[in-house]
Amino acid sequence: MKTMYSxxxxxxxxxxxxxxxxxxxxxxVDEAKDITRRTFLKHVNKNxxxxxxxELGYAEHWRRGLTMGKDYHIQYxxxxxxxxxxxxxxxxxIEYVFKKEASAC
Length: 105
Description:
Layout: E1 5-10, H1 25-30, E2 33-35, H2 37-43, H3 46-55, E3 75-81, E4 84-91, E5 94-100
Antiparallel strand pairs: 1-5, 2-3, 3-4, 4-5
């Protein structure tokens, strides 16, 4: 089964102790690799992403307004946070981070 990543947090609400520490938020951003929206969507939980997209005010269909897919200001990334793979996107200079979902026992 493919590993999915769910929305974890954004940089505005990040724990201040984890911003500048080794492997923390700053390192995650500094070491990030650009990826396509398509690659990003292959790895993130669709429900988690859809909820966040709605909260950011994007339309679901282009006939109803600006969709996230058509917003050229958004960038998508893959990186590491304390050695663990994360996916994130930036919107208005805010990082929205998706981490690996906890596996069921």
